[in-house]
Amino acid sequence: MNIGEAAAAAGVSAKMIRHYEQIGLLPEAERSDAGYRLYGDREVSVLRFVRQSRHLGFSVAQIAELIGLWSDSQRTSREVKAVAQRHLADLEEKRREIEQMMDGLSVLVKACHGNELPHCAILDKLSRGSLTQHQPHQKPQLKKSRAQAEATSAGTSSPIDLMAWMRGVHVHHDAHLEDKPSLPRQRAGVFGDEPTDVAPSRTLFRRGSLP
User: Is domain 1-75+159-211 annotated with CATH 1.10.1660.10?
Assistant: First the structure.
């Protein structure tokens, strides 16, 4: 199938397929005699895997690690679970930070009368830096989940050598890729497509075939 058909089958854009090839999440496509990219069921499966992983907020580096485990017949479920546990701990921390921001904002909103007068407690507190500053502290269960994930990960070896590649990953939302390709790269939030400037890596598909 051509790139348009593969994109429709996998539920991603053709532009993202090209991007995933460039960063090594998808193996380089075969070419027709006319030079067009050709894809099969295997590539569509990988694209669906990436799409589903991104929907859960996994980073590009984490998806690369998961694909490496998926394609490695010698993997253990412990290794896969460790990746998911680390990500879950990150999401818990982000949720806690968002809750803290909401609490602080709620205080400001309640302090403002919202009437026709010019005085506003929100502007006053923001300009005076009078908001209470709290140094974030991890909840006990968050610390425990992080420690468990890191201990599990430390006790196993990666099935592929991805570390050098992962250290260079910087990501941003696909809306910037689609609409503002000239914007500088930035680290993404929890969700969304994550284009990067990382050099292609083909090591993901060297140690065994995908299911």
Answer: yes
